[in-house]
Amino acid sequence: MLADAMVVSTVAVTDLDRAKRFFQEQLGLALLDETPFAIRFGAGKGTQRSGRRGQPNVGQTAAHFEVDDIEAVIRELTSRGVTLEEYETPKTTNFIAQIGPARGAWFKDPDGNVFGLRDGPIPGAT
Question: For residue 2, what pLDDT is reported?
Answer without folding.
Answer: 76
